[in-house]
């Protein structure tokens, strides 16, 4: 179990993050660049000491700025860090890189055990043929696998990944992410992935923490966060490309000025409500049963993949959506499938039980 | 200072030195081109072309560079380019063709005679200096040194007692490479004889019985001896009186019997000898400055010799603490340029 | 840049060396170097150079490391200090060393009490050589350490190495070629040191002093063979450093 509670000052803002990660659980810290995610990892790794923090791993206190003061140095923390630059030691062979930690933490199973483990891990990573090579000769993907192997052989109690596969192509990224996922559950260690690619976070994590400007805006299952972002800001971060006014003709203002918000059964809220538009959750045509119908003008359309990407203007709210076919005509109606609604303060309007989260 | 010029010459062999000698390439234009008009009062000559390339003994560096050079170039319009070094080194450099000056100012004629007759046939002694012992006024022995300097204590005890004090830091230069190093030893030997001191006096002062060795903790390079004294890290050092005056050092004057300053006592000085590491034995001689021209005379070179021997030039030497001697020609008088001869009033 | 162009520049650089070799006859070399005690200066130079290197490695490497890793407050001041030491002409260094370790300074008095002296002794020679060569080593070593990626050091730490282990297993091997080159430069400066040596360590004679005095005593042709000896003796170390760094690079490239 990894317990994190950090307050670190950066130049523009303060990073405040508090979360726990269970053994075998995979958490993704997701947010735009510069949000402070890497700072959190560095604090967990003990590379940075912030103003105030408390890090506990497996029952041991690694860092504590309050009383009693504890600051376990990085070489005793048993935390593994995988970065975008795999950081292989260029003067050591692959084998020497892999077994680096073993020399520092001689340990389990003695020499025999070490050799067996090396072979096992090397083959599970597909690098058993590279053991005698020098890092300079490896491809990017191979280097990351060696770096991963090095961490695994070090028997870390927690795995920290700082956008490790960002420089690789999509296919490699997918395969390596899957690999890390398997290995971290096998080892049953808490894992934290930092990424600004939502797809990476979704592929890897059991739980998503959305971070922006140093604060965790929302935590929850990836599905849930994407379908029910806690605020407009989170919505923007998880891919909502537009917000259309939702208090339309569907309801007349009530006594206190509230209007009913279609699609959120039995809820009414203040005026100024908008619905978030996710390009993947727009259906051509009007289907009020499935969500909010909006009517707008097509301002531009371009082919995208097997379909079309169209820019619509609803009132004065622009958004982009994907449609299977080109919609001609100045005015079209599309249905936003079960969109999240946000009040004028930007917060999600879904108190109590959230709308059923169904994927179409 | 003196040794900085030496470093300039050895720049080829050593990795770190800064050259302060400005030697222009030596070339001797034909002597028949525009010449200086020679008149008895030669200090105000008509403009002379060319540059006087002067090789001078280290002890003349200060005077030549700071006093003579500006005055000479202003008076005659000729250029001046000087190289300073130990007289013996200059002599061997000239002989080997390493340097080709027009004028050579040497301490002691025995550095000029080896160059005869190929490079020159004559020389003129014109000024003299003498040995003194310079001391550090902040030394713990300063009051005693002062007593010797103003005569209130007899000099014999300087050699028999004070200079033998263990812990007294005495500095001198390498007798193998610097005439002043040898002169200091001659002076000690003459003192030992003059004051009837025990025969081991000199070896006790020098800390060795091999006077000609360069392996002694008393030995410093010429360039550093005075700085070390001035910095207070020595109690006393060998010096010429002219050096001591130029550098404003306190010093103990010595009687002519031992200070190598009187050419009349040449034979007495010659009784002091030192055997060097290369096996040669050298003996003491009066500290007389000689001047000569090297190779075919050039207008600028001749003008320089003339200027040096003129009343103005000699007065500069006097002001610098040198004793003046009546310049006379040693060697083949017929080879001396007429303008120079006229300065001698002959 | 063409091969010919490079060759011209290289030959120009070697001008003095070529002059040295062509000007001397084997006879000159033989007579100059086979007299009694003729190779003493060589021994002195090598011994003092070796001691100097040891001093540099022990004292200057940690300083260079701290400068490279930004462990010092007001780093620019530290760098400026080393640069000042570098910029002082060796002659001036020597003159100032007199003020620092001369017999009547407090350092000199302590040495005196220990029956040592820092004037005209082997100790003085080493001191002069250290002061002439140290700034080159410090700056070179600093650059060598700066060239080692600190994230590699962090990674090694996270993998369980204590700081000294990290230094030994990661920093030092990766900085080694640069360090070796800096040491080679320092060696060259130490062995050829003259400006400060002539002031505080006239004796014992190393090769530069031997050349200097022989030049004054007997002239150029007897002095030059020592220059050749200097070259022959001083060359192997830097050359070895070069070869070793090149090999390390090649090994790293697999």
Account of the protein in words:
The complex is a heterotrimer of chains A (360), B (346) and C (254). Chain A has helices at residues 37-45, 94-98, 100-104, 110-125, 140-153, 170-187, 198-204, 222-227, 232-237, and strands spanning 2-9, 14-21, 26-30, 52-57, 60-64, 70-71, 79-82, 158-162, 191-195, 207-212, 215-220, 242-245, 259-260, 268-269, 274-277, 282-284, 291-304, 307-314, 317-323, 331-337, 341-342. By secondary structure, chain A is α+β, with helices and mostly antiparallel strands. Chain A folds into two domains: 2-227, 3-Layer(aba) Sandwich (Rossmann fold), CATH 3.40.50.300; 242-342, Beta Barrel (OB fold (Dihydrolipoamide Acetyltransferase, E2P)), CATH 2.40.50. In chain A, strand 17 and strand 18 form a beta hairpin. Chain B has 346 residues and is of the alpha/beta class. Chain B folds into two domains: 48-128 and 287-343, Periplasmic binding protein-like II (D-Maltodextrin-Binding Protein, domain 2, 3-Layer(aba) Sandwich); 131-283, Periplasmic binding protein-like II (D-Maltodextrin-Binding Protein, domain 2, 3-Layer(aba) Sandwich). Chain B is 33% helix and 18% strand. Chain B contains 13 helices and 14 strands. In chain B, strands 1, 2, 3, 4, 12, 13 and 14 form a seven-stranded mixed sheet that branches. In chain B, strand 10 and strand 11 form a beta hairpin. The longest helix of chain B is centred in the first third of the chain and has 16 residues, at 61-76. Chain B is globular, with a radius of gyration of 20 Å. Chain B starts with a helix and ends with a helix. By secondary structure, chain C is mostly helical. Chain C has one domain (40-252): MetI-like fold (Orthogonal Bundle). Chain C contains 14 helices and no strands. In chain C, 44% of the residues are buried.
- Poorly predicted residue ranges of chain C: none
Shape of chain C: globular
Structural class label of chain C: mainly alpha
CATH class value of chain C: Mainly Alpha
Cα separation of the termini of chain C: 28 Å
- What does the average pLDDT of chain C come to? 89
**Which pair of chains has the greatest number of interface residues, and how are they split between the two chains?**
B-C, 45 and 46 residues
Number of discrete helical segments of chain B: 13
Instruction: Report the strand count of chain B.
Output: 14
CATH superfamily of the largest domain in chain B: Periplasmic binding protein-like II
Task: Please give the radius of gyration of chain C in angstroms.
Answer: 21 Å
The CATH homologous superfamily of chain C corresponds to MetI-like
User: Architecture of chain C in CATH?
Assistant: Orthogonal Bundle
Distance between the termini of chain B: 36 Å
| Number of helical stretches of at least 4 residues of chain C | 14
Order of helices and strands of chain B: HEHEHEEEHHEHHEHEHEHEEEHHEEH
Structural class of the helices, strands and pairings of chain B? Answer: alpha/beta
As a percent range, the share of helical residues of chain B equals 25-40%
Largest sheet of chain B: 7 strands, mixed
